[in-house]
Amino acid sequence: MTxxxxxxxxxxxxxxxxxxxxxxxxxxxxxxxxxxxxxxxGRLVLRFQAGAATAREAAATAFDDACGALEAVYGEAPPxxxxxxxxxxxxxxEIGPVADIIGYTEIGEIFGVSRQRAQQIATRHDDFPxxxxxxxxxxxxxxxxxxxxxxxWPRKRTGRPAGMPKGG
Amino acid sequence: MPDRMDWLISKAEEDGITARxxxxxxxxxxxxxxxVAFGPTPETPAEWLGLVAALREMGMxxxxx
Lengths: 168, 65
What we know:
With 168 residues, chain A is of the alpha+beta class. Helices cover 39% and strands 22% of the residues of chain A.
């Protein structure tokens, strides 16, 4: 059984989808559905995952799943205009490289320190990888660059040197 | 992938895309006539791939471009 990425296009009209319609489609499709609608053209694109042994079987299953979800919203499924199924490798090749974004919480997990300490490491070491994105709500780094930095990270031990007596 | 979702939503808002959630937890990102809905949270790289494809079609710049 292979997991296939399905992409089904339909002409769904130019009315915006309501929250209820979106939730209905989302709940009826397998895998992790992503719905994209362009109200200027009426094009609706449904992306989701389908398990099947062959591309033919995956395409048939994806068509049925998409039509079932659309019928639940529209009564009669709008015309399907395009259908594709891709393996994960094909999908990854088509999408191209995508940075694996992480923040201070995950950096802390990688280094085995708190989130606050992770932020200190990232901001106080000049050779720490530069953030790949700094939107308003935070600062984010590329996981691969952080992992590479950890390999050469000179972790400083705190506390008393070995052999130092506990008392004053 | 909580950090990634934090990044995604803040990046979307920075790009002029409004982000909100339905009562069921589905994320809805909207800009002009474009709507992308998913949710609640991608858990695997495979799930992230489909989302990146839709967001790039919407005009979002995802690092790695």
